[in-house]
Amino acid sequence: MKKLGFLGLGIMGGGMAANLVKAGFDVTVWNRTTAKMEELVSLGARGASSPREVVAGCDVTFAMLADPRASEEVCFGPGGVLEAMGEGRGYVDMSTVDGDTSRRIAAAVAAKGGRFLEAPVSGSRQPAREGTLVIMAAGDRSLYDEAMPALERMGKLVLYLGEVGKAAAMKLVVNMIMGGMMAVFCEGLSLGKRAGLRIDDILAVLDNGAMANPMFRLKGPMIQEGRFPVAFPLKHMQKDLRLALLLGDLFHQPLVSAAAANETFKRARDLGLGDEDFSAVFRAVS
Ligand code: NAP
After folding, report:
1. The domain spanning residue 262 has which CATH number?
2. Is 171 a catalytic residue?
3. Are 108 and 178 in the same domain?
4. Averaged confidence pLDDT in the chain
């Protein structure tokens, strides 16, 4: 069986790497904050001291990092992925980043003789733990095929979308829609409350009509209770809106609603809500 590496053990990466270990793969992990490696090591993973050490010992290395800056630092920085990248090795970056970041990493990996796949995901903390993510992949087809047994342990649906940049675009489009939905959902709940309506009545009306969806159903009651347990950090939602707006610029696509949602999420970050769940944007509009 191939040796697998995993870089970045945050909310998502921790659960995804755990699924690979539980599936019986030989897994080596690394995280910037080393304490987060303990749970994985106790499950049977090997801990490494740098991304370079992981890549040096593995056939295919996965990464799940915060944002474009983190992806670039882990790839290009000292002790990074590129220092050990070589002929035949695979690198699969599952972080949500923009296409330009992905293409820079893909080119650098290829220049070292390696293969690159971008594979951002939809789904949150629980689907990451349960191995039921939706995985959107693009890039080297042979690496996609080779990584499939591992991707199938992390996701319930795996799609191949073509050349590098396509999966990044898909992920940004989807999250832009999600951020816009959450912003206007919270504005609606807040407006209803001010108008003297009960939030659970609003949620019941929504859930029994054409707008019913799992996100409103999951987050609505928690918003009502003023609880925002973090599944998808608000700062990452704002990052995704920012990157989607940049993609819109590139294609001259008007993004009036998404731009407004981005302003709302920026305000929420400014209020200190960046590390809370993205549903805490409610606090910025109520
Ligand atoms: P998270 O819990 O904040 O984890 C971020 C990870 O990136 C951590 O391992 C963190 O290391 C690492 N990191 C950040 N900056 C770094 C740097 N400069 N150098 C090295 N490592 C760095 O975030 P998450 O929720 O797991 O999200 C990870 C990615 O998945 C993001 O791109 C996010 O947009 C995307 N995503 C998240 C969800 C979700 O619902 N949570 C769903 C789909 C996609 P430390 O532990 O040292 O901070």
Report:
1. 1.10.1040.10
2. yes
3. no
4. 98
Give the strand pairing for 60-63 and 90-93: parallel
Q: Which of 3, 112, 171, 219 is catalytic?
A: 171
Q: Domain check: are 42 and 143 in the same one?
A: yes
Q: Which of 137, 163, 189 is the last residue of a domain?
A: 163
Residue located nearest, by CA, to atom 22 of ligand 1: 70
For residue 146, the domain's CATH number is 3.40.50.720
- Quote the pTM value: 0.97
Over residues 215-271, the pLDDT tens digits come to 999 999 999 999 999 999 999 999 999 999 999 999 999 999 999 999 999 999 999
Q: Give, for ligand 1, the residue of 12, 133, 177, 278 to mutate: max count of ligand atoms closer than 8 Å to Cβ.
A: 12
What's the domain range around 213?
Answer: 169-285
Spatial distance between the Cα atoms of 246 and 97, rounded to a whole number of angstroms: 12
Cβ neighbours of 236 (radius 10 Å) = 20
Residue indicated by tokens 């003023």: 226
Residue nearest to atom 41 of ligand 1 (CA): 232
Q: Is the CB of 14 under 6 A from ligand 1?
A: no
Q: Is 124 in the pocket of ligand 1 (CB under 6 A)?
A: yes
Burial of 60 (0-12, 13-18, 19+ CB in 10 A): buried
